[in-house]
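Input record (one chain):
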Amino acid sequence: MAPIAVTNEPLFYPLMKPTTIGEFFQSLPASLDRDAAEDVTVVYQFDLSGTQGGQYSVQVKDGACTVEPGVHADPQVTISMAGDDCLKLLNGKLNVPASVMTGRLRVSGDMGLAMQLKSLFPTLGA
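The corresponding structure, as predicted from the sequence alone:
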């Protein structure tokens, strides 16, 4: 899979309701809030297990987002969970704090950047 980059997408983004992890990562660049991402440089690593699993790196830099399959050498944030749970979270059917407390969702790295994920992608889990 080649990197996916956002270009001149409209400023209004419909709510994301992905049905597969692949669909989610394909649509992710278009859901970036470019204003929120203007001065942000970060790599998020997603390690997803199970039937909807896979490894993806999401880079936000210079107000753009690219997604690549596989493992990034030096991500600032790593998010680990089952792919099915990730879909539930994205569709607003899984509570993030409860998922962290029960170990269904594990986040490592820069917690400030992890918390910024929602402002960079405001349609996630809406």
